[in-house]
Amino acid sequence: MFSDITAQEVEILNMLDIMTPTGVREVKEYMRYILTKQYRREVMAAVFHNKLLSNLFHSLLFLVERDDFDVAQVQKRVQQIKQIYYAIFDQVHNKYSKVVEDLDSNEVVREFGRISFENLERAFKQGQLSLIRMEVINFYQEYNKLGKKMDARQIVAV
To answer: Which of 4, 44, 83, 90 is the most buried (most CB within 10 A)?
Structure first.
């Protein structure tokens, strides 16, 4: 492990070694802030700029374009999207939660997914093709909107 330490890391450790306890605490707080900010940017990019998810959404839209689409096939595609969506989110979240204590999950990403998938499930239970189509289109449009929205990636300092 010690052979993996770079000169820059040694320099940082030497700086921390001569700091007062208050200074070390402030550095940790600032690093937590920076890592949280980086986490939010990374999770947004990972989920909303993922080529596989984009391709699955396009194929889902293609499936619901017809007047008499197969609901089972659409449900299967939505399940694929859901699994990949949360797998990507969890991968990034777990990476940062290992080094940042009490890491808040990115509510924009988590809540968007939860609400959208619940709306689709409700539409599937009702069985109305037009409602399913509308929910799929809405999900796709909101997904793209969040991927392009710069405000969603910015963090406001408290």
So the answer is: 44
Rounded to whole angstroms, the Cα distance separating 82 from 94 reads 18
What pLDDT, on a 0 to 100 scale, did the predictor assign at position 147?
87
Give just the sign of the alpha carbon dihedral 56, 75, 113, 85.
negative
d(CA 80, CA 23): 48
| Lookup result for tokens 């089972």 | 72
pTM of the model: 0.81
In angstroms, the first-to-last Cα distance of the chain is 36
For the chain, which ranges sit under pLDDT 50?
A: 1, 151-158
Q: Which residues contact 81 (CB under 8 A, 6 or more apart)?
A: 53, 56, 57, 60
Give Cα separations from 24 to 30, 31, 133, 138 (angstroms). 10, 10, 54, 47
Residue 33 is encoded by which pair of tokens?
A: 């802030």
Domain ranges of the chain: 2-153
Nearest to 138 by CA among 154, 152, 122: 122
Return left, alpha or beta for 64; rule: phi > 0 is left, psi -120 to 50 is alpha, else beta. Answer: alpha
If you count them, how many residues does the chain have? Answer: 158
CA distances from 37 to 30, 34, 88, 104 (A): 11, 5, 18, 11
pLDDT value, residue 144: 92
